[in-house]
Amino acid sequence: MDRLFFTLGALSGFIGVALGAFAAHGLKSRLTPELLATFEVGVRYQMYHAFALLAVGWAQTRWPGQVLNASGWLFVAGTLLFSGSLYVLSLTGEKWLGAVAPVGGLALLGGWLCLAWAAWKG
User: Fold this and answer.
1) Cα 98 to chain centroid, rounded
2) What is the crossing angle of helices 101-121 and 66-92, to 10°?
3) For 33-53, how does the pLDDT look when each residue is reduced to its tens digit (9 = 90+)?
4) Burial class (CB in 10 A: 0-12, 13-18, 19+), 30
5) SS (H, E, C) 78-98
6) SS3 letters for 36-76?
7) 0.90 exceeded by pTM
8) How far apart, in whole angstroms, are the C-alpha atoms of residue 14 and residue 53?
């Protein structure tokens, strides 16, 4: 699992950088400032949680277990739901997607709690 979460973190970081560059160079003239800011929040949280997945991959080498696995999968799901919904909302203007972001945010929070618990119980 350590390699899986480390790989997912690295790929998520790669995608985050690519989407950030896309926003800065390709979307700046196409989106309203509010929608561009929303897209950028998605990129920022994706990057934070790419590092979190790298941390989970590293932690797996010290404190492997189900709680740590849950942390990694919550980070993956949370990133897809939170950042993904903000990306799609920004590009389509579909406001109902704003209701998906809090679900992703809860998953991200759960990931951090599980990571803390795994380290504490390590």
Assistant:
1) 16
2) 160
3) 999 999 999 999 999 999 999
4) exposed
5) HHHHHHHHHHHHHHHCCHHHH
6) HHHHHHHHHHHHHHHHHHHHHHHHHCCCCCHHHHHHHHHHH
7) yes
8) 13
